[in-house]
Amino acid sequence: MKSLFLVLLLAATANAAETLRLFIWSEYIDPKVVADFEKANSCKVQIDLYEDSDAMLAKVQAGGGSTFDVIVGPDSAMKPMIKLNLLAPLDRGALTNLKNLDAKFLKAPFDPENKFSVPYQWGTMGIYARAEPGKKLEATWGLIFDPKMQPGPFTLIDVARDMIGAALKYKGDSLNSVSPVDLKEARDLVLEAKKRALSFENTVGGKNKVISKTARAAIIYSGEAARGMTEDTNTVYLIPKEGSEIWLDNMVILAKAPNKALAHRFIDFVLDEKVGARISNFTQFGTPNAAARQHIDPELLKNPAIYPPAEVMAKLEFLQDLGPKLRIYDEVWTTIKSR
Asked: What's the CA dihedral at 221, 138, 155, 197 to 10 degrees?
């Protein structure tokens, strides 16, 4: 009986060791890349999806830290996870493809030594809209916040920092402002827009609303917009002239990850130049992998929605970790969603 128990225990342990648990945004990795990794490593990849970074962080804090191996998360979540000791230091010796990364995406303020994180994809936030024949839409947040400029039915983005940040940029403020006056004005702008909006949507939902012609415009991320423009050439992506958000998503390994060795192999696989290009060709977000650029679809490289020109890049801001002052945003968002 004991020998049977031992056999079952060893089998269960072997099966657990052959599974990588990935926590990632939806529609954010090519399923064929996942299948190739499984084949190359004789393992299974179990994927869990999230649509909101705050919800992701809450799930990890609530016990998910021992459930997942690799998380692909936003820059704004990196510093909190590091401070909370949720992340394992990376074994750089196991990441032979680190050399492929573009230096400008390394040494980010939240992890200056890349001790815990490596870049995955980057992009921007803007307005995805259906163009009207013979009429050019102005690239401005006024399409959302000025009733006179509203092009038709629109959706708001269901992410607190992003939505409040859009209002802040429209007013000429930093999207990292903690000024009570700035945030009150931004709150009021969003509340007024909410009265005219169809709904709050995640970025995929917003894109789909425009594609289906339910909405004329939506606040979404650049990758979904680029894919949407491929599906429907009568749609456009606008980065508002007032400025917007640039973001960098990162791969990390959790401190309590069940399978750290396989997690390192997964990250190194993603950092391969050809694999990195396949992922960016699929997501249509910007690649932080310099070596991968030679394998990127040339049409994507020329697309300013994915790789904006320098004058647009100059007006973009990264979200910063606001520490305890983040509670002001939480209070503003609670008011916005409850009214």
From this structure: 160
pTM comes to 0.85
Quote the CA–CA distance of 46 and 23 in Å, as a whole number: 9
d(CA 8, CA 178): 56
pLDDT tens digit sequence for 171-220: 999 999 999 999 999 999 999 999 999 999 999 999 999 999 999 999 99
CB 58 within 8 A of CB 287: no
Looking at domain 123-246+309-338, its CATH superfamily turns out to be: Periplasmic binding protein-like II (3.40.190.10)
Cβ(335)–Cβ(190) below 8 Å: no
**What are 23's strand-pairing partners?**
48, 71
Residue with tokens 């750290």: 260
CATH number for domain 2-121+248-301, candidates 1.10.287.1120, 3.40.50.1110, 3.40.50.10090, 3.40.190.10: 3.40.190.10
What is the chain's length? 339
Q: Indicate the angle between helix axes 75-83 and 53-61, nearest 10 degrees.
A: 20
d(Cα 83, Cα 95) in Å, to the nearest integer?
Answer: 24
